[in-house]
Amino acid sequence: MSASQDEQVYALLRPYVAAWFREKYGSFTEPQLGAIPLIKAGKSVLISSPTGTGKTLAAFLAILDELFAMGERGTLEDKIYAVYVSPLRALDNDMYRNLLAPLREITEKAKSMGYDLPEIRVATRTSDTSPNEKQRMLRRPPHILITTPESLAISLVAPRFRERLSTARWVIVDEIHELASSKRGSHLALTLERLEELVREAGQPGLQRIGLSATIAPLEDVTLFLGGYDDEGRPRPVEIVDARFAKPFDVRVVTPKVDLIHGTRQDKRGDL
Fold first, then answer.
1. Cys-Cys link to 123, which of 81, 142, 223, 240 (CB 3.0-4.6 A)?
2. Which helix (H) or strand (E) holds 4?
3. pLDDT in tens, 67-88
4. Residue 257: pLDDT band with limits 50, 70, 90
5. How far is residue 5's CA from residue 165's CA, in Å, rounded to a whole number?
6. Which residues, in sequence order, are CB contacts of 86 under 8 Å at separation 6+?
7. 149-167: burial string, b at 16+ Cβ within 10 Å, e else
């Protein structure tokens, strides 16, 4: 990865988002270099890379940048713009916490650079969510909704909250390798099509879909699951960011200082 590649991606981001990322991380990982330009260009993307390579941040950084830009223009409304779906409630809760810190830090960085940004709200809606919290979401919906496949399906048949989902622009499916070949995955595929139909009926151009996956093959089959098919039965286009072998390994052989087989008892009591 070259410095010029980093600068090309930095140039796509709002100045304060780029400044925050540069101070926090310095350079982009391979999946981030590949995914952020595609997401910013409005393309659906499947990102496949090992754990710890920053694929989740790649998805959210591009979306947060767009939401902050809307905030600058004064066009950020009380609407759900992004839906994050994961198979585990625990992962949903982690994602909620993991988003709050970057949002706070980017907002502070923007303020230090002379920008006055509105709050970007995040909320979790699962089977653990209380009725009071659900009512609050109706009155003032989050900009980013974090949920599970089953809760998303239920939300789509809840008469009042269904309307809130009609404004979605992005949907992120995390741990897609855990869902693609299961009954839960089949159910989610139908749910995404129902959400797609709802969004289009509301006059929106359709969902931009982002899938996050650990190592899985064949990736082409997973894109069919993620993107689904249009009204003509054609698969929707999904770009692939294949960074499955991007994580570097530091392999070393570490041995004790003494011979554990032939050393004396005194040797073994010493430092090893």
1. 142
2. helix 3-10
3. 999 999 999 999 999 999 998 8
4. low
5. 36
6. 92, 95, 146, 148, 173, 174, 175
7. bbbbbbbbeeeebeebbbb
The type of residue at 187 is H
Residue environment code for 122-139, b if the CB has 16+ CB neighbours within 10 A, otherwise e? bbbbbeebeeeeeeebee
Alpha helices in 11-114 (DSSP H): 15-24, 30-40, 55-73, 89-112
Domains in the chain (CATH in brackets) are 29-269 (3.40.50.300)
3-class SS of residue 184: helix
> 88-102 in b/e burial notation, b at 16+ Cβ within 10 A?
ebebbeebbeebeeb
Distance, in Å, from the CA atom of 164 to the CA atom of 162, rounded to the nearest integer, reads: 5
CA distance 191 to 149: 8
The first and second tokens of residue 149, run together, are: 């496949």
Closest CA relative to residue 154, chosen from 134, 139, 169, 172: 134
pLDDT tens digits for 138-148? 999 999 999 99
0.90 cut: is pTM over it?
Answer: no
